[in-house]
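Recap quiz, item 2
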Amino acid sequence: MGWPAAQAQTKPSRVPRSERQAPVPAAGPRVNKADSIAIRTIFDEALLRGQSYENLRYLTGKIGARLSGSPQAQQAVEWGRLTMEKAGFDKVYLQEVMVPHWVRGAKEKGQIIGEKGKGIDVAVCALGSSIGTNGKLKAGVVEVTSFDELARLPEDKVKGKFVFFNRPFDDRLIEPGMAYGGAVEQRGRGAIEAARRGGVGALVRSMTSARDDNPHTGNMRYDEAVPKVPAAALSTLAADKLSLLLKANPGLEFELEMSCQNLPEEKSYNVVGELIGSKFPNEIITVGGHLDSWDLAQGAHDDGTGCVQSIEALRLLKAAGLRPERTLRAVLFMNEENGVRGGNKYAELAREKKENHLAAMESDGGAFTPRGFNVEASPAVVKQLQRWAPLFRPYHASDIKAGHAGTDIEPLQKAVQPKALIGYDGDSQRYFDLHHSALDTFDQVHRRELELGGANMAAMLYLLSKYGL
Amino acid sequence: MGWPAAQAQTKPSRVPRSERQAPVPAAGPRVNKADSIAIRTIFDEALLRGQSYENLRYLTGKIGARLSGSPQAQQAVEWGRLTMEKAGFDKVYLQEVMVPHWVRGAKEKGQIIGEKGKGIDVAVCALGSSIGTNGKLKAGVVEVTSFDELARLPEDKVKGKFVFFNRPFDDRLIEPGMAYGGAVEQRGRGAIEAARRGGVGALVRSMTSARDDNPHTGNMRYDEAVPKVPAAALSTLAADKLSLLLKANPGLEFELEMSCQNLPEEKSYNVVGELIGSKFPNEIITVGGHLDSWDLAQGAHDDGTGCVQSIEALRLLKAAGLRPERTLRAVLFMNEENGVRGGNKYAELAREKKENHLAAMESDGGAFTPRGFNVEASPAVVKQLQRWAPLFRPYHASDIKAGHAGTDIEPLQKAVQPKALIGYDGDSQRYFDLHHSALDTFDQVHRRELELGGANMAAMLYLLSKYGL
């Protein structure tokens, strides 16, 4: 590519006017030129002296995977507390919460057994919360693409078999999150539906559009009314292979061995840090990500990035000299992945203490290049936030719209009725390639994309803290 | 991340309404619901049966780097012709053009010579078009961050030395292309400015914000009025190291050895494919990328992606049954990187044949997730294109604004005055990490991001072809 010489800046020490100052929205007196300048200051701090990338390098590289109840999750709690303390927040504390403790165990193996009894290894992983197989579990396989299709099958076609849920992502959907939403019930409820029809286990196509040999884990559920059967994810290539071989030989068997198990609950913590509001200290604005991660990789995009961005958002405001008028609270929630115990505990404590929560924000969609914010609020509040869109336009985060905000902050809605739940929204084309798989590693995170996200979050906090809702 | 169950689609075979049909813009009768549906059809074809990704795999993997004049560039011409023929275009042909032929040669080595004469290897690469060093070239080093600073230095501080241009990207700029524009004159004119003051060579900090050991090449120029001196890029880490060591020891020397050379010009080609317009066959809309690439990697994002997207854009319209009313011409331009001979030849032939060019589009900014289009046109034409923005909103390409369109189509402006030059614009945060370096490889390209880009380009061609300008 040859960029034109005309774009050259003769004075590179100056940010061009177009970037220095966003047009002030037509909303009247509620935001002004000073806001545009303040936000530019936030971005200068993030892009020149940002700390989130190095924080993430430590969290993912030195601690790594941190499933609830694991020693690494406990190390991450300590890391979060220290990192907030170093950032100079006014208050840093922990919230105790009991969490599930599931472990994958050493054995995890799947084989397609061909006509002559020869096993073909395929890439599988246990789904989170699944029981183990208690040795080897060998059975026939019946493939379906929906629960409806399963329900229509005669009993003898299912009984004693693995049910293989193989509905792929709908690639036509522009938003991969929509494709995920259209497929993920197979992972969540597959074992229940399989057992209900007499199946001995669930084999689930991985939740991704990517075609590769990485199985994607994620949580599954049981229902007390039906027997518990083991559930595993197959990589998309393994699922394609199993489907192909089943067409040639509907009588083939699958052998699954998994030593995963659910251990007694463990004590763990949310990590909380505050900047106390200068004018309205009792009005609280929360920003957070979840500290726990799945165990197959480093939990980089899911959700190490949300944690370091949340800490960074408060640090940026402090470093930029923008003392918030309302109290800002960065929260690293524990146990989003398999229980949401941290999110529920946070909401429960807020209700018990009768706290006044103005708004809560979460970053849990990966730290890719900015798009905007998803808002759960009344139409009037959504509109108010949309009036700030011009301030976010130079930073590619002006797409402010109704949408899912975040799993950890959701319980706050019922508990203390904040006026808005807000999800920071980055581009998501690459997210489900990595999500819950061995690929969710630090090297997949781009320094500037991460920093731009944290700065956009800080800018939103600045406006919320200054103007309220 | 836990996406809400509420997002699940119970009928995954249906694209949700919000994605099926974009709001029709308020511009009146010029676009309608049929356009929205036609564009959705284009995206279905791209996302379900797209061919651009596999085409790119072949071009980058089987042919690879293809600098003008190289055997690989000639193979790429053949590949382009065959790929267009296979796509069933109405006409496929070549346009002959003479191109520069620069070769890197086998020797390429840079060393910082410390106080005791010990050499420290650092990552360097010759800049394109540079002369070689004719053996080893050892000299002192003077560091500057601007041409102004160089001009102010006394003669004896520069004479006989390497001039080390070490102005970094301005990381505060949100658009990396702006940071590139603010730094790239060092690469383009560094050797001229160094030689003008008696310097023996130019050492240039690589054009990237990334901190790593990959030197980034790119073209440089000479001026007949001053001696030609060799020019090399240092990786950003090498530049940081050289700068640090110079502070401790301003008398240190640098030793450069490069066997690059400029060979006689070679015959090469643009590759052109057409879909003939059904109503206005003489009104031409061009879409293209450049077929040549730098020699350090595979030329994936720069600009293999623009080539396969341009071919794909026409193929999508054909496959979707959307026969264009005006003639669409996909062009793979030769020699963008070090001469723009292909772009100039294309414009020259258009003028000679008195062709009627309505508009021209280029994709040469990498195939990252879509943003929109950059337009060079009259304000009225820019406004007309902006009225189509709602049709692009569901596909993340609604940011339609004035801006640089593309180097290869630029000569058309003077030659035949098309009403608009349009640059397809993807996100650019990651682009300059790879650009002109060994990292510009196929694995850095995301299938869906590539496909979404080609489909957005096809949608724009569909509207231009239907409505004119």
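The longest helix of chain B spans residues 447-467.
The domain at 25-102+264-467 of chain B is CATH 3.40.630.10 (Aminopeptidase).
End of item.
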